[in-house]
Structures are given as C-alpha cells and as structure tokens.
C-alpha cells in the first residue's frame, strides 16, 4: 500500500477528504475537512501548488488510478459515444485527442520511446501553474478577514508568470466534419439518437444566454413541441438538449433522444422534423416574450435551488470564476439578465 500524502493524511485524521477532476481546459482540486482544522489543511493544500513532490511512487499511483478509471469507462456507453464523437472531429484540433489515457499511453509507450513522464509533469507544472490563471475559493466558519489573512500568507508564494490563458484556434467541427451519420452498437440496452451542432464560444454572452433560449424551445415538452409530435408518432419518449462552451473558442449543441423501436426506423424523418423546427426559429427570429419566460424560469431555479454540499459549492464557484465577472460568479451560470435581439 502506498503511503498517504501529507495533505491526504491530515484530512483523513480530521474527518475530511479530497478529490479532483479535469475538464477540457481546467483541472479542479478541492477538499473538505473538520471546521476546526481548516488552517492546517489550507497550509498543506497550498504547498501542493508551490512545491509539489512529484515523486516516482506518487506518479505511478496516480497513473494506475487513471488506468483503473479508464477501464471502468470502457463499457460505459456515454464515454464510448463521447470518444467516438471526438474521433470524427478535426485531427489538427486538440479536442480530437484521446480523453483520459491509460497505462499504455501514459507509461508503456513513453518508456519504449525513452520519454520521462515525471519530467513532463514537472515541465507542465512550471509552464502552466501560474497564479494569474488560477482561482481559489475558501469556505469556513471564520471571518472574511481571517480567511483572507490565511490565504495571503499561505498562497502568495505561488508564482505569477503572467501567462495568457491557453486558447484553441478554430473549431473541431469544420465543414469536412459535418453532415455525417454515425451508427453505433451500444453495450447496454438503449435506443438513442444524438444530433451534434457546432457553436461558437458564447461565454462572453452569459448575461443574455442565447443558447438557453434555443435549449428552452427545442427541449420544450408542451403541445406543439418537437417531443409532443414525436410521442404522437410513437417515435420517441424523451428529448433533451444542451448547449455548452467546451473550451476557449468553441462549443457544441447536442440534441439527445430516447427512441422507440419505430423511431429507430424513422431516424431520418426525426432529423428532418428537428431541422425544420430550427429553420422555423430562424424565420421567426428572437421573441421577447420567450426570453421573459426563460428569464422567469431561471430566476425561480436560482432562488429556490437546494443548498449545495460545501465541497461541491467551492468546486463549482472556482470553476465559475474562470467564466464570469467576480460579481456574477454565483449567478452567472444561471440567471438571464439582458435581452439581445441580434
């Protein structure tokens, strides 16, 4: 059994634990600990970024953890479909690359080619772990002044190299990657259909959220909606739509349908129905009353949302700070504040 890191050992001794996740452009580290031991945990957490050990045993352990998660996901249809989608994007774009890695790509191949993975980790840390592109959120029972004093004292030694936020030129879905039909056989018992569309980076429009307007209408379930029509035809029983910015410079819109057997045989007609509805929205143009409907729904969602567990809360807010102005980091992902007709 590998020894615990100082941070994990301290958290374990005081009723806490830590975790992390990596998205398309950010890695998010977070922890929680008993309320009386936050200062000690923060001190150890800061050293993780100031002077990481990157010793061989820890590197191997994390590599094996990545491999274990990869093996778990091999038979998960959502992961399989996500990787399949990436495989059909532009090979020149970073988004096309494999998502998680395993022992073959992170250990065996590098060893055969004489590549020192630990050295690459240190180089990556030296290049990108700069204070100016990092965000920190701390939640504790202490006063704001006390928390601020701890943070300034413990985290000020993180280097600020004033590097630009990495960006990704172009969109992974170019003209050559559109208008394609991909058929897959799932591992589980599912009959589903996804339509994928390229979107620009819309994060600069978070106060008006044009994608929310689109998602609201396409995903509506009332009489006259796409889903109501497909249900009457006996083709689909569920429709969801989500639009998101994947990373700096590009995003996607995904319309997902849970089909019935008859729907699978009529997937082309379902596609035609959805595209016809989108063309209708283009002809009609943005409607202010629909914007107000979206605004009211999201306002209620924000006001009456359930209280988050503390660790989930700080993790989410830290991510939001990369996307929204400081005063909007709690509400920027939810509320719609501006009507923009064009």
Short overview:
The chain is α+β, with helices and mostly antiparallel strands. The protein has 13 helices and five strands.
Mean of residue pLDDT? 93
Structural class: alpha+beta
Instruction: Strand order, main sheet: write it out.
Output: 3-5-4
- Which H/E pattern describes the elements? HEEHHHHHHEHHEEHHHH
Total helices: the number is 13
Family: Belongs to the peptidase M16 family.
GO molecular function: metal ion binding; metalloendopeptidase activity
Domain Peptidase M16 N-terminal: 9-86
Keywords: Hydrolase, Metal-binding, Metalloprotease, Protease, Zinc
Explain this structure:
Belongs to the peptidase M16 family. Keywords: Hydrolase, Metal-binding, Metalloprotease, Protease, Zinc. 44% of the residues lie in helices and 12% in strands. With 342 residues, it is of the alpha+beta class. The strands form two sheets. Strands 3-5-4 form a three-stranded antiparallel sheet. A hairpin with a 2-residue loop joins strand 4 (236-247) and strand 5. Helix 1 (6-13) packs antiparallel against helix 2 (38-50) and helix 2 runs parallel beside helix 7. The chain is globular and about 60 Å long. The protein starts with 5 loop residues before the first helix and ends in a 22-residue tail after the last helix. The mean pLDDT is 93.
